[in-house]
Fold this sequence. Notes:
mainly alpha
Amino acid sequence: MADxxxxxxxxxxxxAAHDTHLKFKTQKHxxxxxxxxMLILTTFFCTPLISxxxxxxxxxxxxxxxxxxxxxxxAYMGMTAWMSKK
Length: 86
């Protein structure tokens, strides 16, 4: 997998490029997962499955979680845009 030029020898540069690719792929999965979780949580809170009193009680926790998840998504998008201009 890391042998990019298919010569049968994995060089340090090929290994570094492969590791970088895996890192970016993992970061993308984390950002997409955070966004999907925010969508699912919002949809769940808009259904009658959870009472309004419980929503009020969980308000602080949920708002902090949304800020953290949005920070993950925003940081990924910002760094991706910044790195594409480098």
